[in-house]
Amino acid sequence: MSAYSSASTPSDAAPLRTNLAEIRNADYREIDREQLSEMYRHYVEVKDRYPHAILLYRVGDFFETFFQDAITVARELELVLTSKQGGKIGRVPMTGVPHHALDRYAMQLMEKGYAIAVCDQVEDAAEAKGLVRREVTRVITPGTLLEEEMLPSRRNNFLAAVVVAKHHWGLAYTDISTGEFFTTQAQGIEHLAQELDRLQPSEVLIPTNAPDLTGTLLRPGEGSPHLPEGLPPSFCYSLRSNTVFLSSEARSRILIQFNLRSLEGLGCEHLPLAVRAAGGLLEYLEDTQKENSIPLQPVRTYTISDFLTIDRQTRSNLEIVQTVRDGTFHGSLLWALDKTVTAMGSRTLRRWLLQPLLQCKGIEARQDTIQELVENATLRESLQQQLRQIYDLERLTGRAGSGTANARDLVSLADSLGQLPQLAQLGAQGRSRYLKAVETVNPDLEQLGRQLRQYLVENPPLHLTEGGLIRSGVDTVLDEMKAQVEADQQWIANLEVTERERTGIANLKVGYNKTFGYYISIARSKSDRAPEDYVRRQTLTNEERYITPELKERESRILTARDDLNRREYELFTGLRSQVANFAEPIRKVARAVAALDVLCALAKIASERNYCRPQMVNGREIAIVDGRHPVVEVSINEGFFVPNSTRLGRSESSPSPDLIILTGPNASGKSCYLRQVGLIQLMAQTGSFVPATSARLGICDRIFTRVGAVDDLATGQSTFMVEMNETANILNHATSKSLVLLDEIGRGTATFDGLSIAWSVAEYLATEIQARTIFATHYHELNELASLLSNVANYQVTVKELPDRIIFLHQVQPGGADRSYGIEAGRLAGLPDVVIRRARQVMGQIEKHSKIAVGLRKGARHLDKQTVESEPVEQLDLLDF
Ligand SMILES: Nc1ncnc2c1ncn2[C@@H]1O[C@H](COP(=O)(O)OP(=O)(O)OP(=O)(O)O)[C@@H](O)[C@H]1O
After folding, report:
1. Which atom of ligand 1 is nearest the CA belonging to 676?
2. What is the 683 CA–ligand 1 centroid distance (Å)?
3. How many alpha carbons fall within 13 Å on the CB side of residue 259?
4. Is it the case that residue 11 has pLDDT exceeding 60?
5. Nearest alpha carbon, ligand 1 atom 28
6. Alpha carbons 700 and 621: distance in angstroms, whole number
């Protein structure tokens, strides 16, 4: 149980130990409201408006929950469930958390999939006549977090909205902490699922026409008949009324938000579903943020086909942002490449890796900057040094705009803006586009930074209403107030000396306590010498305590002046904060340029330290990598131990390279590693990065597909083999001749001959029908025979050296097919009985002797290139004949 519990709230709260089923008044909807006392009546009125959120209701120093919410919160947060007198109705369940710990507990509830409505006191309890006025000041949901401590700094927290109309869909998403706001429209639900998978939004808004469900937050995996079919179940979905997603309402909401007359300039005028999604998203922000107005950047329209498509399997198999095995960041591509020095840069690198480009122009612009920074290490190091001084401008601006920034945030912002001129000087030394983007500093931002530094003290406190924020000399009213307080404080400080002189009592003291304020203390033995204007306030064993009218007057003046002074400081502070919010747009523009430069510096540093090369991007189908390496494995094993391997793929008139490589080799020889290495090099190249190779010429790919390993998908109840077949079907149905397909172990999850047959026909289809560039790693060395049938197929093997008692892995990929697998050898080394090994060899010999796969298919080979494979009866394979 937590140390915080309602047991420490008001005195009539009592722990509830009863069986949950016996708790009375748990359901607020079923009680007689007339019987409730005034505060509870207000509580249920508010609760009626937020039936699906946990309502945290401010009472004194606590945020309390009542009725069913109290039971839920007690269970989820392991707090003590108590009860409190709710009026004539008797006691109602209650659980509370201290107000200062709200963020922490809200975060825990959020992680468990709850939305939270915060109902705070909006007037001073001391000044309230009757019930203290309370209002919902914020609704916190997973997609609307703003609090620094609740947000991961190095990744975005996206809120998405989706509108589906048959096969077409619109998607809008934003990160309200950084203000990014995008929208798009396309067709094919699988593409929507892919986009959501790329973004990993914390919350997805879905329109529903069931009014009583509006506001429901479905936890990940919960599912609902109201979710459009085909959406991944792994997200938190919020059901919203479909009226706010109507075209006209959505449209006018966007126009008002960005103060526009038409959507033309935003690029979404003719994309009705994109507009509807964006409008619905804006309405949600209005509804949840209440008094915080979120400064969003004008919505930007994008097209998914402008980027390399990476589906969920590929993102997972290539371990782009997390590893397959344990889902950790450590060991992923992002981990190996993220040498950025700002949180903004880190978020940008993640985005770039998940959304590589399709146009040479954009890729080459990034490459140009990397090249410049590889060649000029001094400039690169100075830039990184400079970038380190720049805080998270995007999120600091976001907090300023939403009114949640504190004085330390503004000081960090000012310090960061103060670094821009030096950054500009460094940028001016470069030639490429990304360096040029920072070479001029907006004078308004310089001025803003100066003003913030001029007003705010260097190390301001966290609290904003207790003074100590603003420097002296910047505001005459404030200075006069400070002078008055200081004069009175000085008078009190001198009082001890002046009163000792006046009374002649050498040990007279001036003290302060909370109950009486300032007092003069005299030893009781000397109390007869107290002057007439001394008024006795307290008698202790050895001393008497007095006040004087003048002392009291000074004291109350100090107290009121301090209040005024704190208020004035707060006013000045909020003025500064609003000023920052007014500059949100130009600050974020700079932030984007800074983030991109940070990423390019990081990639240049890696390129230089790890000997990467600049890949030459070409428009054809060529993939020519000389001495390529796996970017993650290379840095995970001892330096110099990684064995580089080359790759040539992509047949064309000028190149005899194969389209499909059959890759064989014993277990653990490095097939998977090689396969992934090729995929990662291609992906890195299309991100604009240099690649781990001696040289590379790469044609742009439209998609990278992977099928690696075999894992049961228990969540959807699919067997290993069905997962494998689904993934393979997806590849065969969507790959094009511009795709890169990486297949590892197709057909292993079923009977050998079924598996081999499927593997064979899949490879054949890829090579003849689709002609995608493919690497097909397999233990079925029978597939090597394909190369003798199809001219665009080649065999490669990962080599090993056989010694009498062991195998040495050379990890070298060389032309030719392995004529045997080492499975039986591996079994022998593992200690299988000799008799079993002997029998296995015998069986193997029989299989090899009688296999007529190549002969059988060669007879039908004339049909292979004519797309008639399906209709032609291929001769009965003789595989079972041994
Ligand atoms: N080129 C290489 N240089 C150095 N070490 C390598 C290389 N390729 C692979 N390795 C090492 O060998 C290990 C096994 O590689 P990998 O998993 O790719 O084998 P595999 O042939 O796919 O095995 P299996 O058929 O059992 O799946 C890797 O973890 C890696 O450490």
Report:
1. 18
2. 20
3. 3
4. no
5. 670
6. 7
- For residue 853, name the pLDDT band (cuts at 50, 70, 90): low
In this structure, what token pair is assigned to residue 768? Answer: 């003849």
512-521 long-range Cβ contacts below 8 angstroms, 24+ apart: 516/545, 516/547, 517/547, 517/552, 517/555, 518/492, 518/547, 518/551, 518/552, 518/554, 518/555, 519/545, 519/546, 519/547, 519/551, 520/495, 520/545, 520/546, 520/547, 520/548, 520/551, 521/545, 521/546
Query: Please, which pLDDT band fits residue 440 given cuts at 50, 70 and 90?
Result: very high
Q: How far is the CA of 671 from the centre of ligand 1 (A)?
A: 6
Domains and CATH numbers, the chain: 6-140 (3.40.1170.10), 153-306 (3.30.420.110), 338-609 (1.10.1420.10), 616-826 (3.40.50.300), 832-882 (no CATH)
Considering only CA atoms, which residue is closest to atom 4 of ligand 1? 642
Amino acid at site 629: R
What is the CA(704)–ligand 1 centre distance, in A? Answer: 21
What is the atom index within ligand 1 of the atom nearest the CA of 645? 1
Strand pairing category for 740-744 and 703-707: parallel
pTM assigned to the model: 0.84
Q: Give the distance (Å) from ligand 1 centre to CA of residue 673.
A: 5
Residue-averaged pLDDT of the chain: 87
Nearest atom in ligand 1 to the alpha carbon of residue 665 is: 21
Q: What are phi and psi of 280, to 5 degrees?
A: -60, -35
Q: What are the structure tokens assigned to 398, written together?
A: 């976001």
665 labeled binding residue: yes
Tell which wins on pLDDT, 161 or 816: 161
**Of 268-282, 585-599, 625-639, 826-840, where does mean pLDDT reach its minimum?**
826-840
pLDDT at 390 over 80: yes
Query: For a substitution probing ligand 1, which of 318, 319, 323, 633 has the most ligand atoms within 8 Å of its CB?
Result: 633
Cβ–Cβ < 8 Å for 286, 293: no
> Could you give phi then psi for residue 136, rounded to 5 degrees?
-75, 115
- Rama region for 534: left / alpha / beta (φ>0; ψ in -120 to 50; rest): beta
Q: Which among 754, 818, 809, 744 has a CA at the least distance from the CA of 778?
A: 744
Q: Based on the number of CB atoms within 10 Å of its own CB, is 416 exposed (0-12), middle (13-18) or buried (19 or more)?
A: buried
pLDDT at position 709 is: 66
Which residue has the least CA distance to atom 16 on ligand 1?
670
Residue identifier of the C-alpha nearest atom 31 of ligand 1: 633
pLDDT at 285 over 90: yes
Question: At a CB cut-off of 8 Å and minimum separation 6, what does 34 contact?
Answer: none
Strands of 396-516, DSSP E: 509-513
Q: Can you give the pLDDT at residue 712? A: 42
CA-CA-CA-CA torsion sign (259, 262, 264, 267): positive
Q: Which amino acid is at 503?
A: T
Report residue 853 as tokens. Answer: 């796969």
Q: Does the annotation place 615 within a ligand binding site?
A: no
Burial (0-12, 13-18, 19+ Cβ within 10 Å), 288: buried
Pocket test for ligand 1, best of 630, 672, 775 (most atoms within 8 A of CB): 672
pLDDT of res. 212: 77
Mutate to test the pocket of ligand 1, among 318, 633, 667, 673 (most ligand atoms within 8 A of CB): 673
- Measured from the Cα of 669, ligand 1's closest atom is 21
Q: Identify the burial level of 126 via C-beta atoms within 10 angstroms of its C-beta, where 0-12 means exposed, 13-18 middle and 19 or more buried.
A: exposed
Q: Mean pLDDT: which of 411-415, 517-521, 778-782, 829-833 is highest?
A: 411-415
Could you tell me how many residues make up the chain? 882
CB atoms within 10 A of CB 773: 31
Residue by residue, DSSP assigns 299-343 as: PEE--GGGB-EE-HHHHHHTTSSS-TTT--STTSHHHHH---SSH
Contacts of 351 (CB under 8 A, 6+ apart): 156
